[in-house]
Write a structure and sequence with these properties.
single chain, elongated
């Protein structure tokens, strides 16, 4: 294996471990999100914005906080898709300050 494949596998394993830990702690994540999809999604985001070296400098606590924010955003966006048109109107009104 080349060095970059080994590094990519290590990054994916680290992300997978963190996603699994977060989903184990939060029932809401398990109900709304697919673990495998989230590992792939977060891995893609990290590859796009951080080099392997930069990622290695981030400790697990900081990386967990960052991944938690991504999971929360994904779970919330999925929740909005589950709203009825009436619920969506109430949500929009609340966000716009009309409610």
């Amino acid at each position: 294996m080349t060095q970059s494949i080994i590094e990519k596998n290590a990054v994916t394993a680290r992300i997978s471990r963190i996603v699994e830990n977060l989903m184990e702690k939060e029932t809401w994540y398990r109900e709304k999100l697919d673990r495998g999809e989230m590992v792939n999604y977060v891995s893609g985001l990290i590859e796009e914005y951080l080099s392997t070296e930069e990622l290695q400098e981030i400790d697990d606590e900081d990386l967990s906080d960052r991944i938690r924010k991504v999971l929360t955003l994904e779970a919330v966006s999925g929740t909005l898709n589950d709203l009825t048109p009436e619920q969506m109107e109430i949500f929009d009104a609340a966000v716009e300050g009309r409610w």
